[in-house]
Amino acid sequence: MECLRIATFNCGGLANNRRRKVIFDYLRTLNCHVFLLQETHSAVYEEKQWVVDWGRSGSIFHSSSKNRENGVAILLNHPDLKFSSWFGDRNGRIIAVDLELHSNSFDIVNSYAPQYAPQRNLSIQDRTLFFRSLYVYTHSLRPTVLAGDFNVVENPKIDRSPPSGNHDSIGTLQDVCATFHLRDTYRAMYGNRPFFTRRQGQVQSRLDRFYVDNSIVTSSEFSCPGLSSDHDIVVLEIQSFSITPHGKGRWNNNAAIYGTPAFKTELQFKWQQWLTLQAFLFDSKIDWWIHIKDRI
User: Fold this and answer.
1) Against a cut of 0.70, is the pTM above it?
2) Distances 215 to 142, 144, 183 between C-alpha atoms, Å
3) Which of 22, 110, 259, 268 would you label with 129, given CA atoms 20 to 30 Å apart?
């Protein structure tokens, strides 16, 4: 497989026609195959036109019907890349796609996490709940890439300048990554080397990141200037995908855990999340149940 370059970029809004054209033209000059955009400020009624505006190999824009300040998108820039399926959340902050490239199939989850902003009624708890919701989208048997603007750093001592000791609810995201064996690609390749993706005044931080599972071999990660945005464009180069074969093995169902308070609490929490997906993402309750029973 040829190297695949995926870019993530908080573009700061595409609703203005002129701005959208300038940003699209700029992205076309970059040697990247997939663009993950956050904070597009899209609306459902505009998405078809934006797909036409991008053209190329295809695109998906996902909007919130309530909050235009959100919006995520995935743009393809490779003739052999194809969408096979996709789904997203209700808030225009998550879009998950299955992509095919030649004989390779893999999943990409584009994430735009809420920012801690009390003046807009966005709390740290909102971000924690958002990270919990990533379980539904990141669960996959295929090679998986989780990326986007996470609006919080992994390690405030090395991912922020000036350094900080405040972790701001990162634990839930780390739990998701641990569950699906996802690694922070930049830290895995470059250790504690400083790298910042967003600049606001005198503060720099690494908010825009990639996480991949062990079946994905990466070769480099770097940034490009972000046009009309305080975020850089971060580019990950993937060298290859590999799927490790597993034997039948033996699995013992420990039924005793079903009666524990921790299991009941977690199942009840997830069940309330899954219920919200039925009407929005699936054609029928049967399709929904086929999807959800695997999670249970």
Assistant:
1) yes
2) 9, 8, 11
3) 259
Alpha helices, H only, 9-73: 17-29, 47-54
Listed residue (3, 36, 2) closest to 108, CA to CA: 36
Q: Is 118 left (phi over 0), alpha (psi -120 to 50) or beta?
A: alpha
pLDDT in tens, 76-113: 999 999 999 898 998 999 999 999 988 889 999 999 99
Two structure tokens written together for 44:
């459902």
In sequence order, what DSSP letters do the residues of 129-176 get, joined into one string?
HHHHHHHHHH--SS-EEEEEE-SS-S-TTTSEES------S-HHHHHH
- Least Cα distance to 208 among 167, 159, 171 occurs for 159
What is the rounded CA–CA span in Å between residue 117 and residue 120?
A: 6
Contact 83, 57 (CB under 8 A): no
Alpha-carbon span 183 to 178, nearest angstrom: 8
The upper half-sphere exposure of residue 11, i.e. CA atoms within 13 Å in the direction of its Cβ, equals 27
